[in-house]
Amino acid sequence: MSTLSAERPEAAAPVLSMRGVSKHFGAVAALTDIDLDVHAGEVVALVGDNGAGKSTLVKILAGVHPQDAGTVNFDGKDVTIHSPVDSIQLGIATVFQDLALCDNLTVVDNLFLGRELGPWRLNEVEMEVQSWKLLRQLSAKIPSVRIAVASLSGGQRQTVAIARSLLGSPKLIILDEPTAALGVAQTAEVLNLVERLRENGLAVIMISHNMQDVKAVSDRVAVLRLGKNNGTFRMKDVSTDDLIAAITGATDNVVTQRAAQAGAAQAGAGETGAAGAGAAAGSDALADEGAQDSRPADWPGEPNEGPGGQGPGGRGPGGGGLPPGQAGSAGQSGPGAAPEEGTVP
Ligand SMILES: Nc1ncnc2c1ncn2[C@@H]1O[C@H](COP(=O)(O)OP(=O)(O)OP(=O)(O)O)[C@@H](O)[C@H]1O
Description:
The chain is globular. By secondary structure, the protein is an alpha/beta fold. The protein starts with a helix and ends with a helix. It has 15 helices and ten strands. The site of adenosine-5'-triphosphate has 11 residues, from strand 2 and helix 2. Residues 16-251 form the ABC transporter domain.
């Protein structure tokens, strides 16, 4: 990769370029006229409310659903993805939320499941060596490759699933909510892993509902709303408020209303600091947004949603859980991003 393209991935030709992609399920228009570009060495977050069409888009790329209209250009060629095998052979790896790991098998067995080494008998030593190499390349924290996957943490399982998808040497890796249901430390581990993927020159699409995670690792963010493109933003140029407005389709939404309420309450009480962090949790996980819709401002659960949750208070300032050094290297997180997030409910 040239220096220019290494510094600004979007200066090079995209690895993936979708144009005018549409998909209907009967009368439901799941996707209408979608454009999306992803470059090598770039992390693009795909965000949108429930039902926005994210999974459908990913399934088209993974060969689960054929698109009804539009073109997919991959690695410079127009392609038709008829099946998951087509997708893998092209160099697209998709890690779905369920991870599809075999709990009773070891890390090595899971990594090489279906592509075991050795023509007549398994070359266990070589598979183990390659497993370690791969996991080291990802700076993965796996205690042993000979333990059952069932005994690993959520973050470690996600790491194994991602590592397995890399064995096919993909050019594009799609991660479907890789940090969903993970704790703070495990989320940081997975976000670090996403950064390793980018450093290794992969194009990455990451679906996420968590704005904190999106801000921590993405270079660009593509917003889907009701099955249509609703903006593509460079992460460093967009505030969380603007993103939420693009996702919800309005600047006046439940999240901003909560921010206003929290601000008014704070002003009334003459408080500073901690209340803002507590309220921020509401915008970090958009998945929570629906649940918060109907809640009054004085809902009893509210105080617990602050620093102790998945919000900035729980992960340190602006780093999305990344250690300070790595947060800086992400380019979108760290102290520079903190004031922006402070404006969010
Ligand atoms: N197999 C299917 N059959 C019929 N309708 C479908 C199917 N898959 C998705 N849809 C519809 O297409 C629309 C987009 O769904 P999709 O799952 O892609 O959204 P999403 O953004 O991934 O949502 P979520 O964040 O809830 O996973 C929705 O209206 C959904 O009901």
